[in-house]
Amino acid sequence: FQGKRILKHTYWYLMDFTGKEQLVPQVEEDILDIHWIAPEHLPNYLEHAHANIREVCFRAGVIANPG
Which residues, 6+ apart, have CB-to-CB distance to 20 below 8 Å? Predict the structure, then answer.
């Protein structure tokens, strides 16, 4: 598959986190870092995100504009 784009189906969930557990990135999926982000801070992270991720957050009602 080298050099080819492959569509990967993903599922997104809207969650609240109240625990104190340490998060563990899934390095085998090239996820090197992971954080819980408060909704009011989300626009800062979405500024450089793919349009489809912004659309998911918009449809979930987490952001006002997928911009």
Answer: none
Instruction: Supply the DSSP string of 1-25, one letter for each residue.
Output: -TT-----------------PPP--
**31 φ, ψ (degrees, to nearest 5):** -95, 110
Model pLDDT, residue 33: 93
pLDDT in tens, 14-46: 888 888 889 999 999 899 999 888 888 888 888
Distance between CA 7 and CA 56 in Å, rounded?
Answer: 17
**CA 61, CA 66: separation in Å to the nearest integer?**
10
13/56 Cα distance (integer angstroms): 10
**Predicted pLDDT of residue 25:** 95
